[in-house]
Design goal:
Layout: H1 10-27, H2 36-51, E1 55-62, E2 84-85, E3 88-92, E4 101-105, H3 110-119, E5 121-122, E6 125-127, E7 130-132, E8 138-139, E9 141-143, E10 148-150, H4 159-171, H5 174-177, E11 184-195, E12 199-204, E13 213-220, E14 225-227, E15 230-234, E16 237-241, E17 250-257, E18 261-281, H6 301-310, E19 320-325, H7 337-340, H8 347-358, E20 362-369, E21 377-380, E22 387-388, H9 400-404, E23 410-413, E24 416-418, E25 425-433, E26 439-453
This protein binds 2-oxoglutaric acid (AKG) and fe (ii) ion.
2-oxoglutaric acid binds near residues 201 and 206.
Protein name: Fe2OG dioxygenase domain-containing protein
Pfam family, one: 2OG-FeII_Oxy_3
Keywords: Iron, Metal-binding, Oxidoreductase
Length: about 475
């Protein structure tokens, strides 16, 4: 049976051929067209572009309602795999009490589309401190989100997630990146229509609505048009989004940082409809420390269960320590770990921590070494940054305590009641070992949530009152 994996290594062969070819080119240096300096500049530029993306975009094909085949079959290759959208519905009413109109895009009716355009207002833009109307600079109409609603939402197609992955890292500091818990919040800002033969928006920068705004998202709804290319500029780089070819077959989008200049070239034919969104970076989700927290630990199913358990005299009558290994991976041995945990806990870990804390227990996230299996566990006294230890250790003669006393201070105990199994390891320590050859050994740790349960007679009334 033919197995692709054991077949010829096409990539490897091509790699070898290419390497051999480039070697012979290097030898015949007279054939080189770029000067050494220009080449270096090109590599620098390439590095910059790789490291600092400033815009991104994508396409979501529209499926027909009747059958689920993508309308843009020919252009299927451009689509995000598995992401298609039914036609987009727009509802609007500009006067209070008026019945709403409905438009399905790609336009099911030219007259309804024209009605929508008639109900829009001429689009202004900010010039200095003023909002100005200047069709030479911006020729478009717009509608405020108070007056319309749409079936489209960027979160449904993974757009927000993708923008987060590409544009958010550079916005965060290294510290915040180490847990990557910042998120984007997307706020619908406007519906715009640029119509042929003269709709356009000359070069401008979007006015930030608040300090936390980091960029804009433009979503082009399916409607036939020509021209109208969006160009986004950052330093000397340009990203171009030509949405005319797929204009009535797909939803197409672009996101870019707030400081990027951008422009829309003249729409020569048809109607170019866009939804614009402001992108904000959200503050860390600290369930337990944020005063405006939106999750109440009491609403979590675990709360009632643990509350009941703690009320039982038989449960840790003399007090004890509960240990729960984190179920998500965190860079808990990174340099910034102690700033980022527990605030960056996710999912089940966040639930465990916040419920225990709101029941009045003392709770902490600590590292547990995986070196010594068995009942005795080595628990770091704090979240240590991963370190290189210079003290020699011979595992045969010394215990790890000797090493740990200094750089990685720890408790050694078998008295923690563990209620889950360890999951994600992180490098915690590296140290030279004693032997007939120099060698380095490593120790890894797991992050765990530890809660101190007081003796039964001190437990009542410790839970948060609501
Ligand atoms: O429609 C577009 O492509 C972008 C619109 C725009 O730049 C804006 O509304 O500020
Ligand atoms: Fe803009």
């Amino acid at each position: 049976m033919g197995n692709k994996k054991t077949g010829p290594d096409v990539f490897g062969k091509a790699l070898e051929d290419t390497l051999a070819g480039s070697k012979s080119e290097r030898r015949s240096s007279s054939t080189r067209s770029l000067s050494q300096t220009a080449l270096l500049e090109a590599y620098n530029e390439l590095e910059k572009r790789i490291k600092r993306p400033f815009a991104c975009g994508g396409t979501i094909n529209i499926t027909d309602n009747q059958d689920s085949r993508p309308k843009a079959k020919k252009q299927k290759r451009n689509a995000i795999p598995g992401k298609t959208s039914p036609p987009v519905r727009l509802f609007w009413a500009t006067e209070t009490g008026a019945t709403a109109h409905k438009l399905v895009l790609p336009a099911d009716s030219t007259s309804v589309l024209q009605k929508l355009i008639k109900d829009c207002v001429p689009a202004t833009f900010g010039r200095g401190k003023k909002d100005v109307l200047d069709p030479e600079y911006r020729r478009a109409v717009k509608m405020d989100p108070n007056n319309f609603a749409t079936s489209f939402h960027p979160a449904n197609f993974g757009i927000v997630e993708n923008v987060e992955r590409i544009l958010l890292p550079r916005i965060n500091t290294e510290k915040q990146n180490s847990l990557g818990f910042r998120k984007l919040r997307v706020e619908l800002y406007s519906l715009n229509v640029y119509s042929g033969p003269s709709g356009l928006f000359r070069k401008h920068v979007d006015t930030p609505r608040s300090k936390s705004q980091i960029g804009s998202l433009v979503v082009c709804l399916p409607s036939k048009f020509k021209g109208g290319r969006l160009t986004v500029q950052h330093a000397r780089q340009h990203s171009k989004f030509d949405w005319s070819t797929l204009s009535d077959a797909a939803i197409q989008w672009a996101a870019f940082y707030s400081d990027c200049k951008h422009e829309i070239e003249t729409v020569t034919e048809g109607e170019r409809l866009t939804l614009t969104y402001n992108l904000y970076v959200t503050e860390p989700l600290g369930v337990f420390s944020a005063p405006n927290n939106i999750i109440q630990p009491k609403s979590l199913p675990l709360y009632g269960f643990l509350e009941g358990l703690i009320a039982e005299p038989a449960f840790m009558r003399l007090g004890g320590v509960l240990g729960v290994y984190c179920s998500h991976a965190y860079p808990h041995s990174s340099e910034h770990a102690s700033d980022m945990l527990p605030i960056g806990l996710k999912g089940a870990d966040l639930v465990v921590y916040s419920v225990l804390e709101s029941l009045g227990m003392k709770v902490k996230v600590l590292p547990v070494l995986n070196k010594n299996q068995g009942p005795v566990k080595t628990v770091g006294k704090k979240l240590w940054g991963c370190s290189m230890n210079h003290q020699e250790v011979d595992w045969g003669y010394y215990t790890i305590d000797k090493l740990l006393d200094g750089a990685w201070d720890a408790y050694r105990t078998k008295d923690i009641t563990w209620i889950s199994n360890p999951k994600h390891l992180e490098l915690a320590l590296a140290y030279p070992t004693y032997g007939n050859e120099p060698s380095l050994d490593t120790a890894y740790s797991y992050a765990a949530i530890l809660a101190i349960i007081p003796p039964f007679d001190q437990r009542s009334g410790s839970a948060e009152s609501s």
